[in-house]
Predict the structure of Phosphate-specific transport system accessory protein PhoU.
Amino acid sequence: MKELTTDHTSQQFNNELETLRQHFLTMGGVVEEQVQDSLQAFLDSNGSLAQDVKNKDSTVNELDGIIDEECTRILAKRQPAAGDLRMILSISKAVSELERIGDEAKKIANLTMQLIDEGESPRGYVEINRIGTMVSRMIHDTLDAYARLDIDAAIKVAKQDRTVDMEYKTALRSLVTYMMEDPRSITRVFHVIWILRSLERIGDHTRHVCQHLIFLVKGIDVRHMSMDKIDAQVKTQPE
Amino acid sequence: MKELTTDHTSQQFNNELETLRQHFLTMGGVVEEQVQDSLQAFLDSNGSLAQDVKNKDSTVNELDGIIDEECTRILAKRQPAAGDLRMILSISKAVSELERIGDEAKKIANLTMQLIDEGESPRGYVEINRIGTMVSRMIHDTLDAYARLDIDAAIKVAKQDRTVDMEYKTALRSLVTYMMEDPRSITRVFHVIWILRSLERIGDHTRHVCQHLIFLVKGIDVRHMSMDKIDAQVKTQPE
C-alpha cells in the first residue's frame, strides 16, 4: 500500500482524512449492495428486496452530504496541499459518481417492481444477469482499488467498461429483433431495456470513479484520454 | 448583482477567481451551442452541423481540464475560505455537469447522422423540438443565473426539469404505441427515443448546475431536497 499523505504537523488532520476515506468506502459499500440487490430483485422477482434498495437511497444521500461537508471543512480549516488536496478533490468528485450509481440501482428497483406488477417478464434475463454481474464486480474492484490506492487495478476496471458497452449493444440488438417479432411485448421489453441502460450507466460511473483514483495517485487528469493512452501515461509517470 | 467574494489582500487572487468564472461561462456557452446545434441538425437533417457539434467536443474537454487545474491551483495557492471556497467547489462540480451535457449533445449528433444515413425518420419531430427547445432555454437561463448569481432564476430553471420529465414520458408513450402499430419502424424509432433520452438527461444535468449555484450563493446543499423544500429553505435563509 502506498503512502500518499504528506507529513502532517497535526495528528488530528490525519484522523480527519482517514475519517473522510472511511466514509467514502462506507458509501461505496452501500451503493455496491444496492446494485447487487437490485439485480437479485430483478432475477428473483423479489419486490421486497427491490424496496430495500429504494430504502437505502436516504443513507446514500446522507453519506453524500456528510462527505461533501467534510471535504469543505478540511479545505477551509487545513488548507491541504499536494497529495492531501488531490485526495479531497478526488473523493469530492468520486462521491458524486457513487451517488449516481445508487440512483441507477434505484431505477432498476423501480422497474423491477413494475415488471412484477405486470406479470412475467419477457427475455433479457440472461443479458441482465451477465452485464449486471460484470458491473457489480467492477464496483467491488474499484472500491478495493481505492482502499489500497492500487492504480493498476483501477486501470484494469476502467478497461472493462468497454466490454460492458459491447455487451449492452449486443443485448439491445437482440431485444429489438424480439420486439419486431412480437410487437405486443414492446412495453414490457422496454422495462428490460431501461434496466440494461442503467447497468451500462453504472459501468460509466464506475469508470469515472477509477479515473478520479488515477488523478489522486498520479496527479494527472485522465478523464478525456483513451484507456490505452492512460496506460501509457501512467507507466511513464513517476510515482 | 450580489457580491460574494470576501475582501482579498491580493488583487491577483481576485483576477484568478474572475478568470475561473469567465472560463466556466465560456465552457457553458460552447455547450449551449452544442445542444442547440445538435437539435437543429436533427430537425434539418443537417449532417455537417452534426459534425460541428462533435468537433466542439475537444474544446469542451480542454476547457474542462483548464478549469479543473485552475480550481486545484487556487485551492493550493490561495487557501480560500467561505464564499471563495464555495465558488471554487461549486464551479468544480458544475463543470462536470456541463461536460456531460456536451457528451449528450454529441450523442444526439451521432444519432442524427445515423438517421440521415438510414433515410427519412419516423415520428418524434414535434416532441424532440418541444423538449429540445425547453432544455436549450434552461441551459441559457442557468448560465445567465450563474453570471448574475441569481438564485431565484436558478430555482425557476431547476423546477422546469419536472416539466421536461413529464413531456419526455408522454413522448415515450406515444412512440411505443407507434412502434406497436408499425413494428418495421422499431429500429428507427429507437434512434428518436435515444435522442429524447439524451434531452431528458440534459435537463437533469442542468438542474444539477442550478443546485450547485444555490450551494455557491446560500451555502446549503440542496441536491437531495425536493424543489418545494429548496424554495422554502432559500427563503428562510439569510443572504
In short: The mean pLDDT of chain B is 90. Residues 82-117 of chain B form the longest helix (36 residues). Residues 11-236 of chain B form a domain with the Methane Monooxygenase Hydroxylase; Chain G, domain 1 fold (CATH 1.20.58.220).
